[in-house]
Amino acid sequence: DGIETILINNNPEPVSTDYDISDKLYFEPLTKEDVLAVIEQEKPEGVIVQFGGQTSINLAESLNDAGVTILGTPFESIDMVEDRQQFTEVLNELGIPQADYGIANSYDEARDAAHSIGFPVLVRPSYVLGGRAMEIVYDDNELEEYMKEAVRVSREHPILVDKFLEDSIELDVDALCDGEEVYVCGIMEHIEEAGIHSGDSACVIPPQSVSEEIIAQVEEYTRKLALKLGVIGLINIQYAIKMDPEAKLYIIEANPRASRTVPFVSKAIGIPIAKIATKIMLGAKLSDFNLVNYSDIEHVAVKESVFPFIKIPDADSVLGPEMKSTGETMGIDKNFGLAYYKAQLSASMNLPTEGKIFLSVRDMDKAKIASIASKAKELGFDLIATKGTAEAVPDVDIEVIRKVSQGSPNIRDAMINGEVAFVINTPSGKQSADDGYIIRRLAIELGIPYVTTIAGANAVLKAIEEASHGELNVKSLNEYAL
Fold first, then answer.
1. Which is the CATH superfamily of the domain at 169-311?
2. What is the pLDDT of residues 396-441, one digit of tens each?
3. ∠256-192-95 over CA atoms, to 5°?
4. Which long-range contacts (CB under 8 A, 24 or more apart) does 84-87 make?
5. pTM score, whole prediction
6. CATH 3.10.28.10 is right for the domain spanning 352-469
7. What is the CATH number of domain 6-80?
8. pLDDT per residue over 41-58, tens digit each?
9. Pick from 452, 475, 451: which is nearest to 463 by CA?
């Protein structure tokens, strides 16, 4: 469109640094001093901070104070979201529910907040990237340990204490706003339940188990919030659906920027979201574009995360609030099972269609394992399990096998001998040397497919069922585009 683009990136690896992406490219640290030096040299008409994640959003205040024109969503709106108190006031005004929270500058304040809210709580430092130093705590002892070991607390760096919405379904929403209209690009349903970082959880478009009523509510809240914040460009919002006992929708957080999910959503719906967002920041309106409704797509798209565990000796594959993934894959097909199967294949998780499945789950998951065991048996798998897990499923034929700590022959021997095709193991504690850790680590090193959540196990069995009965079709992205 005749506009020169200048890119500043501190990472030489991504596609955004290809020679044909921008007119000029600077490899510089994304710090106030370095970015202002480039601006002084180039004298641009404006700067876009929406495409650099939290790092570039954190520069918005410094750039604004230096008199730099920020294109798109104004700094005041960015600050309104980043400041917890201001954001809460906005949500209250709009009538959008938020989980209870507290802000603490000491252990005593954190304990009082946790008692007021009720355990379990999610604790984290304010202004963190990738969920670093974020943890779910269930009692005073865990909270005290976290405050002593994980973080340094001060008036400048308080701790956020949020009510943890246990067993809830998380949703990710990417939307475009031109200040007058809002376009919901896509609503993604997370496969794993709340408590796992959104960057690590697999997700699916369109949502598979969310009611139309909740979807309508998500779209309404997204429109109200984007317009209230004065968003010009992209916004990402995360929600949680908690059965309480009826389904209730809560907002978890909002980010007035492009999320890591934008490339996935763009490919799923066949629309260049980042390009449209840029044009909106330069003055275009949503009505200028031929936009489709994400719910009208005739296929299902699944995003899966890629993890570096094989390259990191002794790393545990248990997922939690702190992000561990280093990449993503995507699967598209006519239904969820086939799309999920493709996504797993892309992530080097070659799901079996026969053989033995090993089951070992924590006590709180034993009530949920019966349906998984029955489904696996129905699909023709043989089952082996530790004594406690097997006893939780008395109606299914399961061979009991010893834990590693109980002496040979045990599950470790069976895995090494190639007798195990798939592992379902949900973690029961924090000790890295326990039986569960040994099993998970061995699965990584031997290349045995595994899952560490009940939701993941259900998704895998759906994928195996579809792959056993159906055919994996290969098409180009253009063929899937509306």
1. ATP-grasp fold, B domain (3.30.470.20)
2. 999 999 999 888 899 999 999 999 999 999 987 554 348 889 999 9
3. 45
4. 84/126, 84/160, 87/254
5. 0.91
6. no
7. 3.40.50.20
8. 999 999 999 998 888 988
9. 451
